[in-house]
Amino acid sequence: MSKVQRRSRAWFGRADKNGFIHRSWMKNQGFPDHLFDGRPVIGIANTYSELTPCNAHFKELVEWVKRGVYEAGGFPLEFPVFSNGESNLRPTSMLYRNLAAMTVEEAIRGNPIDGVVLCTGCDKTTPALLMGAASCDVPAIVLSGGPMLAGNYKGQPIGSGTDLFRFAEAVKAGTMTLAEFLEAESCMSRSAGHCMTMGTASTMNALAEAMGLSLPGSAAVPAVDARRRVNAYLTGMRAVGLVEEDMRISKILTRAAFENAIRTCAALGGSTNAVIHLIAIAGRLGVPLTLEDWDELGRGVPTLVDLKPSGRFLAEDLFYAGGLPAVLRRLSEHGLLHDHALTVNGKTIGENVKNAPCWNDEVIRPWDRPVVAEGGIVVLRGNLAPDGAVLKPSAASPHLLRHTGRAVVFETIEHYRARIEDPALEVDENSVLVLKNCGPKGYPGMAEVGNMGLPPKLLKRGITDMVRISDARMSGTAYGTVVLHVAPEAAVGGPLALVRDGDRIALDVPARRLELHVPEEELARRRAMWTPPPPAMHSGYWKLFHDHVLQADRGCDFDFLLGCRGAAVPRDSH
Ligand code: FES
Questions:
Q1: Ligand 1 centroid from CA 201, angstroms
Q2: pLDDT, position 40
Q3: Which of 101, 146, 474, 533 is the most buried (most CB within 10 A)?
Q4: Is any ligand 1 atom within 6 A of the Cβ of residue 123?
């Protein structure tokens, strides 16, 4: 028994009226006396929802977590948290990441919970649960739901999101019929689980493992593989051990763990969304992490994992090839992993991966034959993005990494949609598409519209990529030479707000520059004429979001949620 006083004893360990209340009402569920004897109470934060299809199988999967908790001598108690799924939630699930994090944090702190299993999967569910648990600093372990099986259409593998973008453009270009397009729906999403490309879900769950928060080898196990249940079972068992050892999340999520995650993201060709989420998670723990860390730590790290959207394969292939441990071993052998970082199984990450096998060098490439030599996420600065912008070179076209072109400007996403298909639009393949007012406050929620589709008239000519710049995000399953997260955003008066049709914009990825070639006097004139767009809503959660969300370079958390508030037991209500 740990010397640390367990939180749950403040509820269940009392012989007075309040203890009676806490135990008696719980017993209406059939829990016997002995479960209240001081054993670790393990909360299971369940993101199950039929509206979050990527996490819907947690309804069943948590039963295996409970078996593991019971076997290890704990008392599992499942609770729901706000489930922010990517495919249904409008205007964007990112608008609700912080809300979900708040529900996790407050549910943990307000209840008799000693340690927590975080059920993660769909894109924003993972950072939301990590942020919430981090602000409480309780022992925590991540159980991801696992990726879907590989899609297959007309005998060819197809990947979540990535091939959807391709198909949608093929329909516009007239090379795919609408009937074929609709037929592909069922072929793409054919099992439980999250997107099986290296999108944000696969990235964030892999990074949770790289940071030591989930059991080794767990991130890539397909959702419907029996070993996903085994993983859930063992995760439940280990949650009890974490409480007994008082292994709080802050002991795992150190600066070294975040550095490991950034380099792992480069090796995976992971999603640009990870930049925002990791900065937000670090902010909850007071671990310093900046955009510059992303650029500096990612330099020299090749993308080894050949998964769509940057490569050829899908998550199932990564699992068969050895999963994340094989990738981490390669980083470790090249001195790019902090081997000493602790993980939830009680061992260091170096110990966990030192003998990890790789079964397929095509899926997890050797160091001297990478998918992309420089896999890190690039941070750009210049007069168009004084506080930074990001670009994922592994998803970009090499010939566009140094490019100057004339701007074609869309003031909002609606303006883009109304204009992009106009045959009279003055645009060619050298133009730079600029989208404004899609940042954290402008959209609101910073939607994944940064990889705006190309004008149909250029698609029909076989053009497949152009430089695109916005204050929006991009789906991790997307690709292209896309500059994202421009900060400050247009809606708060960032220089992006001042760009006009025909302005010359220079992108220089090797030099990390993004410049608007307009004289300063002209910019000052435009600035004087600029007025902020009105907020999308004047009350409710949207107002809270608008008033408090931080810019992309600071992780889009709410200003009042930064930091760790701990899990001191709140006063009793009875
Ligand atoms: Fe849920 Fe992609 S839509 S992970």
A1: 6
A2: 98
A3: 146
A4: yes
Long-range CB pairs of 330-334, under 8 A, 24+ apart, other chains included: 330/267, 330/304, 330/358, 330/364, 330/366, 330/367, 331/260, 331/263, 331/264, 331/267, 331/301, 333/367, 334/367
Please state, in angstroms and rounded to a whole number, the distance separating the CA atoms of residues 41 and 21: 17
Taking residues 274-301, report their average pLDDT.
97
What's the CA-to-centroid distance between 110 and ligand 1, angstroms?
Answer: 30
User: Is any atom of ligand 1 closer than 6 Å to the C-beta of 193?
Assistant: no
C-alpha to C-alpha distance for 43 and 10, rounded to whole angstroms: 15
Nearest CA to ligand 1 atom 1: 122
Domains in the chain: ranges and CATH: 9-149+191-353 (3.40.50.2300), 379-533 (3.50.30.80)
Write the single-letter amino acid at 120: T
Reported pTM: 0.97
Q: What is the mean pLDDT of residues 445-473?
A: 95
How would residue 1 be classed by pLDDT, with cut points 50, 70 and 90?
A: very low
3-state secondary structure 247-307: CCHHHHCCHHHHHHHHHHHHHHCCCCHHHHHHHHHHHHHCCCCCHHHHHHHHCCCCECECE
Angle at 375 between CA 277 and CA 410, to 5 degrees: 60
CB 448 within 8 A of CB 473: yes
124 lines ligand 1 (CB under 6 A): no
Q: Whose CA is nearest to atom 2 of ligand 1?
A: 195
Is the CB of residue 264 less than 8 Å from the CB of residue 258?
no
Residue 297 clears pLDDT 70, i.e. is over it:
yes
